[in-house]
Structures are given as C-alpha cells and as structure tokens.
Amino acid sequence: MARDALACAECPVRDRAACSALTGDERGELSRLGHRRLLKRGDTLFRAGEQETACATLIRGALKISSVDADGVERILSLVHPAGFVGEMFSPVSHHEVVAVADSEVCVFPADRYERAVAQFPALARALLRRSAEDLFASRCLINLMGRRTAIQRVAGFILAMANAASSSPCHPAARFELPLSRGDMAGMLGLSIETVSRQFGRLEKDGAIRREGARGIRLTNPALLQRLAS
Amino acid sequence: MARDALACAECPVRDRAACSALTGDERGELSRLGHRRLLKRGDTLFRAGEQETACATLIRGALKISSVDADGVERILSLVHPAGFVGEMFSPVSHHEVVAVADSEVCVFPADRYERAVAQFPALARALLRRSAEDLFASRCLINLMGRRTAIQRVAGFILAMANAASSSPCHPAARFELPLSRGDMAGMLGLSIETVSRQFGRLEKDGAIRREGARGIRLTNPALLQRLAS
DNA sequence: CGTTGGTTTGATGGAGATCAAGCCTCGTGG
DNA sequence: CCACGAGGCTTGATCTCCATCAAACCAACG
After folding, report:
1. What's the pLDDT score for residue A159?
2. Counting C-beta atoms within 10 Å of the first and last residue's C-beta, which end of chain B has fewer, N or C?
3. Total Cβ atoms within 10 A of residue A215
C-alpha cells in the first residue's frame, strides 16, 4: 500500500474528474484532505460493513463494486473507470466491496472531510451530481442488460459496452481491446455461470463476431453482427 | 392533465423532498419555475427520446422508470416513491419512460431552469446529491435482486422491499400493504414472466409466508420465512 | 349480460446451471 | 531448464427451473 501526497499537476484525470470543477486554489485545498494510494489487481479499497467510510476518485486502472451474498457468490454491481468516483458519503457504513480489477491508482478522502468540502465548494457538489447521474444511468443500463435476456444477448451487450468504454471516442467502439474482467467476474456481473460465459465467447468467435486474442484480448471482427446479437 | 401553481405550504413532502433543503424565500423562487400536475394510473410523465427534458419531484402516488426494448418488452428500472426525484438534467434527451403506477401528483420543472436553480442554490445541489446516492443504492439493490437468483428469491425479496417501502419505520416491514404494481409490472422488474410471478405468489401463500387479500393486498404472515426464502 | 384486462393454473420444451473432466499459461522451485 | 502446481479457461453430459403456449377464471364496467 503506497501513500503519497496528492500531486494534481500531472494527474491524468485532472480535467475529467469531479475535482476538475474547482479552481486551482480550491483544488489545492481539497488535495490536502486526501492522499493517493496504489492498488494492485485484486487489492481491496473499501470493504462492506466498514465503519469509517471514505470516498475516492479513480486516477487510472479499473475498480469493481460488488456485494457478496450469504452463500459466497459475488455479484458485481458496477465497474468504475478512470475519473470515476466511489464511496458512500451519506451512509455511516459502507454497503459494498470495492476491489481493483487492474493495477490502479486512487485519490482517497475521509468521507466526513469530503462532505465538508462539498458543502464549501458548490461547484464540487454540482460536478458530483453530474457524475452521480451518469453512474445511475450506467447502473440502469446494467439492469437492462441483465433482465430477461438470453445469455448471448448479455455477453454480446457486455462486450460492446466494454469496447465503448475502451475507446476514446465515446460513440464508436474500439476494434481491439483487453477485457479488464476475468470470466468469473463477467459471470458475476451478467448473472450467468462461468461456463455459460465461456460458451458464449466460443459461439461469438465461431459466428465470426469476435476473435479472442490471448486470454483477455478481444478483436471485433463484425461489430454489426455483435450489435444484432445483443438485440 | 391538471396544472396548478405550486402550493408548497401544504405539500405532503415539503420536508422530505430535495426542495426541503431550501429556505422559505428560495423555495418560493424555485416554485415559480415549475407547476403541479396530476397523473392518473397509467399516465405517462416523460417519454423516452423526448427533446425538451424536464424533471420532477413526486408528491404522492408512485412512478415507474422503464425502458422498452426492440421487441416491445418493458423493463422496469426503478420505482419512485413520494419525495423522489426523476429526470435527466444533464442529458439533452430523455432515455427512459416515466409512467404513473398509481394516481399521482408531481411538481414538474423544465430541466434548464432547474439546472440554473441548482447552480444558484448550493443547498439544493447537495440535497439532490444525497437523493441521487439513495437512488443509486436502490438501483444496485435491484441489480442484486435480479442477478443469479431463483424466481422464489426474487419475488420474496421484492415483497420484502415493498413492505419496507410501505412501512413508515424504515427498518421493519409493514405487516399489511397494497402492492403498487401489477403482476406484469413485477415480472418486468424482476426479469421473470407473469406466470412465474403468479406461481411464486401461490407458493409463498401455500407455504404460509404471505396471504393474498384481494388482487393487490399482501399480509406478511411469516416475515422470517419470507426473509429466509429471499436468502 | 357480454367484454375486457388482469390473474391463476396446467402441460411442455428449451436455455442455462451444475457436475465433471481436460487444457492452457504462468510462476515457483528443484 | 524442466517439472510441477495452481488458477483460470474450455468443453462435454445431464438435469432443473422457468419461459412459453393454452385455457380457464374473476372482477369491473359499459
């Protein structure tokens, strides 16, 4: 666990994260409340049930937000991409696990202090509101993806979503990218079994929609077909 | 469609909705930007794809937020209870349908004007942020409810959630309440077929967990069992 | 009345979970 | 350097749960 003073100057998300809404001075003030932390793939940032809550902005890498039910099955509730914000500011205890799915770097703040900053800087509140609306939208897309759809639709839809997330231009998907998630994670996210996810990848490859390149690499050989299969 | 000037004075959610964070004067100013509207069960408040977006606070009744996919199947993404807020302020077009599932009353604002109000009144931004966090949490609970669970778990979990929502005390469920949704709506929400939902209700009644009283009424005869079945 | 929309119940088939092996791909240590 | 495991991934066989089709039922309402 590496900790550092914040160095906003060369932060890769300095003009996309919530804090980008602040002036230089305000940002400096905010930066003194938190610290940076490096996470290796698999490291836990927040644990469900923790008393002292915190929140964080993701600088690089990727996080998953998940809950584990009684019988130990993990359900992924959300993926967080760089510039994303995690943490439950208004809740005394945290409800979900937040774990790095890739080597990552985050900017961590104690919840109470961040809350005070939100009260102090209206622009920060508005930026978070906007981000929160996006999260809510993403969350609803996931609900859409999971409910009453066949396995092939879910997997195809998921691959498209990841391709869009991987691409720089928001609208057109990347032709070639690395999946941040393991098969098990994808299964947990889509509400399928690992085997079914694997079989759908096989089928998509056989149908010529994608090509698997290594364990994690995906090439979209026929995005239109993929789109159609996601229906 | 009935329209009225806003009358905050005797509004039933005047101290729970987002606008409750405002002072009397501020609230008066905000109220001049919007108007009230009555909705009958089944009336549409916002339609997906509408150009001029608006947002609204629910005063009484219940709304559903849903999307309809290509083949006409409706997926319910969220239920909105009184004091809840709906609308996509930051998006040029609305993505989802918002429909009343019970006779309702709302306070409607044009999105651009409301956005200006948010910028003008920092307290409003913070209140919305809090509400948005709650929505996000509810949305994630729904994801949890839908993913990789059996039909009986989903229905039992849903009934418990509705019982909690119907109860005044947030923690303990109401023993007797009316479901706001039809079987079809529940099916759309849980990702099941109408028939399966009906069968699960039948099974829960046979097992002694609930009793159906009329088409919509539910009595929890054995909440512990229900809890266990929801696992 | 008949009609209409929601609900229940039954019978059947199929999609996907589960169980069970094999199979790559690393990383570790002999 | 190769052997050896340990995870993660793939593939196959079987079985279960739920969607689908179909029909009866019920209440509200014109």
Report:
1. 96
2. N
3. 9
Q: Which helix (H) or strand (E) holds B217?
A: strand B217-220
CA→C1' distance for B189 and C9 (Å)? 23
Burial of B158 from C-beta contacts in 10 A (0-12 / 13-18 / 19+): buried
CA distance A162 to A180: 9
User: Rounded to whole angstroms, how far apart are CA atoms B152 and B228?
Assistant: 11
One-letter amino acid of B181: L
Between CA B70 and CA B79, with CA B73 as vertex, the angle to 5 degrees is 120
The tens digit of pLDDT for each residue in A55-100 reads 999 999 999 999 988 777 889 999 999 999 999 998 889 999 999 9
Q: Which amino acid is at B125?
A: A
Tokens for A149, please give them: 């759809």
- Contact B10/A at CB under 8 A: no
Q: Is the CB of B192 under 7 A from strand D?
A: yes
Chain A nearest CA to B126, separation (Å): 6
B38 three-state secondary structure: strand
Which parts of chain A register pLDDT below 50?
A: 1-2
| Residue type (1 letter), A8 | C
Looking at every residue in chain B, the average pLDDT score rounds to 91
* Contact with chain B for residue A84, Cβ under 8 A: no
| 0.90 surpassed by pTM | yes
pLDDT score, position B4: 56
Report CA(B71)–C1'(C21) in Å, whole number. Answer: 40
The rounded distance, in Å, linking the Cα atoms of A86 and A98 is 8
Q: Is A95 left (phi over 0), alpha (psi -120 to 50) or beta?
A: alpha
Nucleotide C19 C1' to residue B144 CA (A): 26
Could you count the other beta carbons within 10 Å of the beta carbon of residue A16?
Answer: 14
Q: What is the pLDDT of residues B89-139, one digit of tens each?
A: 988 899 999 999 999 999 999 999 999 999 999 999 999 999 999 999 999
Nucleotides of C under 7 A from a protein CB: 6-11, 15-20, 25-26
Q: Is B141 helix (H, G, I), strand (E, B) or coil?
A: helix
C-alpha–C-alpha distance, residues A197 and A190, integer Å: 9
The strand pairing partners of B80, in sequence order, are B63
Q: What gap in Å lies between CA B41 and CA B32, rounded to an integer?
A: 27
Strand pairing report for B54-60 and B44-46: unpaired
Token pair in block for residue B74: 């409706």
